[in-house]
Amino acid sequence: MSKHVTHWIGGKPFDAAGADQRRADIADPATGAVAGTVDLAGPAEVDAAVAAARAAFPAWRDTSLSGRASVLFRFRELVAAGSGELARIISAEHGKVVSDAAGEVARGLEVVEFACGIPHLLKGAFSENVSSRVDAYSIPQPLGVVAAITPFNFPAMVPMWMFPVAIACGNTVVLKPSEKDPSAAVRLAELWAQAGLPDGVFNVVHGDRAAVDALLEHRDVKAVSFVGSTPVARSIYATAAARGKRVQALGGAKNHMLVLPDADLDAAADAAVSAGFGSAGERCMAISAVVATEPIADELLERIRERVARLRVGPGDDERSEMGPLVTREHRDRVAGYLESGVREGATLAIDGRTHPVLGGGADGFWLGPSLLDHVTPQMSCYTDEIFGPVLSMLRVPDLDAGLELINANPYGNGTAVFTGDGAAARRFQNEVEVGMVGINVPIPVPMAYYSFGGWKDSLFGDSHMHGTEGVHFYTRTKAVTARWRAAAGGPSAATAAAGRSGVNLGFPTSG
Ligand code: NAD
């Protein structure tokens, strides 16, 4: 039966049924068939969601810290219990294999667990006696209604980088997930309701650019968290900041893995294959460029080739599958286009995923097997563009210096990794590389929830990374209070009065 996905506003589904309602199809990537439709919000639906969030804000921000934490604990239990179902929902629309989808739910849950500690995270500072009988303190307070705009590739985890922390801090949220795989967001909204979150604290509007524009224009939206491609991130940052909103906009990536001559080559080949082809390369932390030092490049390629030959590509819900289809037909065709342009521009197609066998699924599914272009140079479009699919580019460099120079010249700075057995080389790499998240013999160095996630350069517009203490800072603003309490009623001293002065001190306040 074909499904229909609609918004979630004020604690319940919001049926925007009307003759002029815009809708988009949701595909089953494994068969290429239309599996359902999703409503696309315009200004009216966005207005309804923001109004619900605004109405819920005063009571939620005044809910005690332990009251908020109890809702988060219940939500954590419900998501953990329902993670299998959520993983199947994600796999059906995104295409990734169910075990990988369960992994993204688990990583999202770690942020919920971090946010359960909100009473500790929201402690302000207090200084006694900054002046005689004067104390000073700071209070972190929520911002109000915050918007979360998220990409297709992690329909549960990326929203969970944002909303648990935002809600724990006392804000109310309007989430605009990707229209390509919208169902996970609605399931999360239902679980929030079951956990006892008051109506209106968490809302979901589906849609495309029209919904995003309406959120950016809305004067009651105080902050915007965005994750997606670099051109959209750049434009959202500029628009939201120009309207006075606080904004963090995480963009695209080109993640390099540098393999030095003393690396464990089996570990490096395992890492290149799992980080290059897991989730069909549709991860912002996927490795897309293998930078091999010349002495080991041929051997590394052979070890990658052996592993790729054994990879099982098939539908996400088939337990035998290790890699699923791509998210849409257009995206599959765009990614496959880089195999042709790479060869045209002088690269060698060492592994051609177009001929990789597919287990089951439909002939019209959005399939592309794991591929590798060798002898890629920095000028080729397969290197300059973010491919976001199962295509590894191999570049060859003489040594660590050349590898660092190549990585630092790239405009993106999301994640990177070095594979080596030399601690001094690894330390130099971590010190000099201009990238926000660095792995040492770890291919996908996604920070734990209590650190913060975010890249440098064209991978992040704004100052704050997501979750961890940077997330708490992003979703709060600090008020500094200076307070004086006199022990007993006082007036001008007798000496001041005798001197004929008013007793009011017009000097600039100083401590003493
Ligand atoms: P996208 O930029 O196309 O879409 C992201 C969100 O923005 C979606 O909700 C979409 O509906 C909306 N959107 C799309 N075009 C828009 C426009 N012109 N104006 C306003 N809103 C628009 O990204 P995607 O294809 O869904 O996701 C893949 C991209 O996300 C890749 O570039 C990937 O690197 C990036 N990504 C980055 C991170 C990170 O942490 N830096 C994490 C995940 C994904």
| Share of β-strand residues | 15-25%
List each distinct ligand once: nicotinamide-adenine-dinucleotide
* Count of discrete structural domains: 2
Going by helix content, strand content and strand pairing, the class is alpha/beta
CATH topology of the largest domain: Aldehyde Dehydrogenase, Chain A, domain 1
By DSSP, the count of extended strands is 23
CATH superfamily of the largest domain: Aldehyde Dehydrogenase, Chain A, domain 1
Q: The biggest beta sheet, please? A: 7 strands, mixed
Number of separate helices:
17
Helix content class:
25-40%
Would you write up a description of this structure?
The strands form 6 sheets. Strands 15-16-17-14-13-19-20 form a 7-stranded mixed beta sheet, sandwiched between helices. The protein has a 6-stranded mixed beta sheet with strand order 10-9-8-11-12-22, sandwiched between helices. The protein has a 3-stranded mixed beta sheet with strand order 1-5-4, with no helix packed on it. It folds into 2 domains: 3-251 and 462-476, Aldehyde Dehydrogenase, Chain A, domain 1, CATH 3.40.605.10; 255-451, 3-Layer(aba) Sandwich (Aldehyde Dehydrogenase, Chain A, domain 2). The protein is 39% helix and 22% strand. Strand 2 and strand 3 form a beta hairpin. Helix 2 (65-81) crosses helix 7, helix 3 packs antiparallel against helix 7 and helix 4 (98-115) packs parallel to helix 6. By secondary structure, it is α/β, with parallel strands linked by helices. The chain is globular and about 95 Å long. The chain has 17 helices and 23 strands. The mean pLDDT is 96. The structure holds nicotinamide-adenine-dinucleotide. Nicotinamide-adenine-dinucleotide (NAD) is lined by residues 149-154, 158, 176, 178-179, 208-209, 212, 227-229, 232, 250-253, 284, 386, 388, 414, 455, 459.
